[in-house]
Amino acid sequence: MKGLFCRAGASDAQPKFVIQETTLPDVLGSHQVRVQVKACGLSPLDLKLLADVGIQRDLIPVGREVAGVVLQVGPKVSFFQPEDEVVGVLPLDSPCSGLCDVIDIDEHYLVQKPEKLSSVCVASALRDGLCAYTALHTHAHMAAGHTLLVVDGASSFGLMCTQLACYHGVKVLTTSHSPQNHTFLEQLRPSVARVIPVYNGSSELLPLVLEETGGLGVDIVIDSGVHLLDEEESEEMKLHLHKHDIISALAVGGHWVTSHQDLQLDPPDCRLLHLKSASLSFLNPEVWTASSAQQGRYLHILKDIVEKMSTGVLRPQPEEAVPIYEATVAMETVQRRQKKKAVVQL
After folding, report:
1. How far is CA 173 from CA 217, 227, 334, in A?
2. pTM value surpassing 0.85
3. Rounded to the nearest 5°, which phi and psi values hold at 276?
4. Are strands 110-112 and 102-106 parallel, antiparallel or unpaired?
5. What is the rounded end-to-end Cα distance, in angstroms, of the chain?
């Protein structure tokens, strides 16, 4: 049986992705489930995070968002039985690659997959749904009547945030990063309150946000990265909002959820946050599987996400599945950030 692994070099060069032979133990653990994988989502591999949590291997398994069918269960498994359709995210320290035909995973990382939800759809969107749920519910404590600014609402993560917020009665503003994205966002149903173009610069952002909120600002901002003022402006960075613009757009008591790992706030930024009594949270999508402290809550979130996908509340953009023999090339593209997501059908 073959799986996809990353061979990380000692230098800063791009990691190499290789197909390696792998085997499973003859006997399942007490709470383990053996799953035949039908689809696997590919997201960028955060090698720095793995090193920070002490996971250092010559070969790192690749592909963690999986959907499949249960083949066999361990003696103490209580949630599943053979032939159940399941979906889940492999933990950071899993020895299995999600691109193997068959994997072993603890039952506490899986939930039932609704019958009418396709394996490809849920594998490609599960991580973004989890991030959106974590940002809006866990960090920002979203409630009906709040106002929300989603940066890059046409991205897979931004789209999940937008749809989830609209479902809960939140007024949503979002930015568009191209004319095509602008048209797409304006045609969303349920519709957003305002689509703000930033592909020609973000100078109009703050006035339009204040116009839509009666001069008060938004209760929640969810970014897709931040442009620190001292950075060189690459094409991608030009589409990110400046940290000062984000703080300025916040209402009193507002909450900023950032995906920027190395965010630096200067004293004037902190002073402005203090004056607004605003707060800042860092969105780490791996926190649920890196710690078992809130395992029950995590499973509840996963179950709610797949149910909302099944009923059409969350409607991810369809991701074209690639065959297993193209997985290495697809992962290299994702790792270089040339593509934000890929899904492999096994």
Report:
1. 11, 19, 28
2. yes
3. -85, -5
4. unpaired
5. 13
